[in-house]
Amino acid sequence: MLTSLQNPFIKQLRKLHRSKFRHQENLFLLEGTHLLESACASDLAIVTVCCTPEWQENHQQIWEVVQKRAERTELVTAEILKAIATTVNPDGVVATAKRTSRDSLPLTKLNLGLVLERLQDPGNLGTIIRTAVAAKVDALWVSGDSVDLDNPKVLRSSAGEWFKLPMAVSNNLGAVVNEWKSQGSQIVATLPQAKTSYWEIDFQRPTMILLGNEGAGLSPELASLADVQANIPLANQVESLNVAIAAALLLYEAQRQQN
């Protein structure tokens, strides 16, 4: 059992809290039983698994699975596990998995796509991913200057749905949008000054929805590529909605129409 915070292996795992080291080591963290189970169900390449003896005793079935699949498994004290985790009260297990290339998506058809520009809040991104899976989104693209897709809070906020959605990171969202536009997809930009409300849009045709930064919204460059600009009507002098709420409204209106 590992008991020291000075153990080199533990020190390496703690570094994965930071984006720089996740990229450098080509690894990301999986925290908690639910995420680990979802990762295994998705056939993700598990590298290491650290758990407390109590967790091992209470989760024999998943422990047997990860022992066969992971490159390394370790029992650790509760203190060590808390140091490895980014959560305040971890449930007893933290794993690492290999980061995969997300430069492109091999899609041939798109009924409903989602593009996120400069999103900074990991909780928002995770919630949007979870909603996108529920609303049958085919794929999601985020800009390279957004929060990491594999930020630990993004994974936790997705509640395990992170593994089910095709996603890519692009440093040129304009090129992605133009590619699908040329294939006949309707491009819908969400802008507060738009004259058309989102429920007036015809979502029965293939559509790509563009959403922007929490504070600044979409850049003028990306917004200019839209075929349709849509707003979400707001009463009582409310200035804006959380971007994850906005995404849910548009995606479920699209799903309602497409169904």
Please sum up the structure shown.
The chain has helices at residues 8-15, 19-25, 33-41, 53-58, 60-69, 78-84, 122-134, 152-157, 173-182, 220-223, 243-258, and strands at 27-31, 46-51, 72-75, 93-98, 112-116, 139-143, 167-170, 186-190, 196-197, 207-211, 228-231.
Walk me through what this model shows:
This protein is an alpha/beta fold. It contains 11 helices and 11 strands. It has helices at residues 8-15, 19-25, 33-41, 53-58, 60-69, 78-84, 122-134, 152-157, 173-182, 220-223, 243-258; strands at residues 27-31, 46-51, 72-75, 93-98, 112-116, 139-143, 167-170, 186-190, 196-197, 207-211, 228-231. A 7-stranded parallel beta sheet has the order 7-6-5-10-8-11-9, with helices on both faces. A 4-stranded mixed beta sheet has the order 1-4-2-3, with helices on both faces. The protein is elongated and about 60 Å long. It starts with 7 loop residues before the first helix and ends with a helix. The mean pLDDT is 95.
Give the secondary structure arrangement, pairings included.
Elements: H1 8-15, H2 19-25, E1 27-31, H3 33-41, E2 46-51, H4 53-58, H5 60-69, E3 72-75, H6 78-84, E4 93-98, E5 112-116, H7 122-134, E6 139-143, H8 152-157, E7 167-170, H9 173-182, E8 186-190, E9 196-197, E10 207-211, H10 220-223, E11 228-231, H11 243-258
Parallel strand pairs: 2-3, 5-6, 5-10, 6-7, 8-10, 8-11, 9-11
Antiparallel strand pairs: 1-4, 2-4
Helix pairs in contact: 7-11
